[in-house]
Each structure stands twice: as C-alpha cells, then as structure tokens.
Amino acid sequence: MGNMTVVKALANTFVCNSTASTFNSGRMIRILNTGTTVGLVTIRDAANTILGTVWVANNNSELFIEKSASDTLESNVASALVGVSVSRGSIS
Asked: Of 49, 63, 67, 85, which has the fewest CB atoms closer than 10 Å, so is most exposed?
C-alpha cells in the first residue's frame, strides 16, 4: 500500500458564503462544492485586503486552502460551498 493522505476535522463544517469566516481560526481549510455551479472563494486578511481568489469546480469537487488564523474566506454562492478546518498528514 502506498502513502495515503489523512485529513482530521478540527471543528464543525460551516457554509462558505458571502459572510466572511475564519473557520474557527483554522490554518488549513477543506472546501467542498456540492452544487452544480462553479464557486469563487475570496481570501482576505484581517485588514479586509484581498489576498487572492480561487475557483472551486462544481459537483462535489474539493480543495484545500492554507491561510493565516486571522484570514477569512467567503464565496459567491449561497450554500453549495462548505468548509471545515483540518489538519493533514500521511500514512505510509
């Protein structure tokens, strides 16, 4: 068996929508898009400056965003994007 990535949830899952969230001050956030529309996630720092944006493909696509504890995430879709603070590791 090869290496396997392990993801440990550190908090509850939240909807990622137009309300900015630190996701419990998480540093690694797993974002899942369960909808049929591609979603845009905006990353902002504590001063509300946009640090970057990333598109999340539709139909159960996921990605991981690494950020500072005070950075926030928000999206352009109402409820299809969900996120959770996680830690990652691997098993050999």
From this structure: 49
Task: Give the tokens for residue 4.
Answer: 């396997």
Task: Provide the token pair at 44.
Answer: 């902002």
The dihedral of CA 78, 24, 84, 62: what is its sign? positive
pLDDT tens-digit profile, the chain (92 residues) = 566 778 889 999 999 999 999 999 999 999 999 999 999 999 999 999 999 999 999 999 999 999 999 999 999 988 899 999 999 776 65
Residue 70 lies in a domain: yes
**68 within domain boundaries:** yes
Q: What's the rounded Cα separation, in Å, for the pair 45 and 77? A: 20
Cα angle 32-33-35, degrees, rounded to a multiple of 5:
150
In the block, residue with structure tokens 């950020």: 67
- H/E stretch holding 33: strand 28-33
Does any domain span residue 16? no
